[in-house]
Amino acid sequence: MKRCLDDVYPDAHCELDFTTPLELLVAVVLSAQTTDVRVNLVTPALFKRYRTAADYAGADRTELEEYLRSTGFYRAKANSVMGLGAALVERFGGEVPAKLEDLVTLPGVGRKTANVVLGNAFDVPGITVDTHFGRLVRRWGWTAEEDPVKVEHAIGELIPRKEWTMLSHRVIFHGRRVCHAKKPACGACPLAKDCPSYGTGPTGFEEAAKLVKGEEKDHILALAAPR
């Protein structure tokens, strides 16, 4: 199944827009309870206004909240981002640390967020267990664990460390495009023949094809089409 994922999503990547570790860290915090697409609409203006950790730490709360309003839970997110900025300034000289044990000490940063930052800003392998990743690896029978940390460790034992970041991207891509939570596109899934949960969603190709999302749709359907 992993080899098939590699073939289906050779260019899988983090779908949040960023140019620095700080931008990525902030974007991941903002992505809670919303989509990467929505975050990417907000961050160009946000990143132009707030360029450093000190900028976030000293932000005017009302102004910052207006930038974040459309991402939902904007007051809590403003608190998180301001606290994050202050902690970076106080403990890390305003720089985003490149170690998991340091990142998870920051306000609002858990292992999932830390692994996204490590893998995509610092090229340090990490497994990102979001809702898509956890759902898919359980459907595939790779683990029965529900706890994200236990899932991370279980999958880490199956897959070489150097492949952790790309595996995360590919699994998440597949979860967003094909293997949906409520109605997976089983009949149009390139992984179908190896999937123990095949049949959870529609198995007819035409019906399932309508459920496939994303700009890779044509590529996915070409690989999954009956021959």
Task: Fill in the keyword field for this structure.
single chain; mainly alpha; Endonuclease III, domain 1; Endonuclease Iii, domain 2; globular; DNA_glycosylase; lyase; Endonuclease III
Estimate the global geometry from the Cα principal axes.
globular
Main sheet record: none
Number of strands: 0
In percent terms, what proportion of residues is strand?
A: under 5%
Distance N to C terminus: 19 Å
Low-pLDDT stretches:
none
Judging by the overall fold, what is the CATH architecture of the largest domain?
Orthogonal Bundle
CATH class of the largest domain, named Mainly Alpha
Assign the CATH topology of the largest domain: Endonuclease III, domain 1
Helical stretch count? 13
Helix content: 55-70%
Query: Please, what is the average pLDDT?
Result: 97
Judged by helices, strands and strand pairing, the structural class is mainly alpha
CATH superfamily descriptor of the largest domain: Hypothetical protein, domain 2
Question: How would you spell out the order of helices and strands?
Answer: HHHHHHHHHHHHH
State Rg: 19 Å
State the domain count: 2
The oligomeric state of the chains shown is single chain
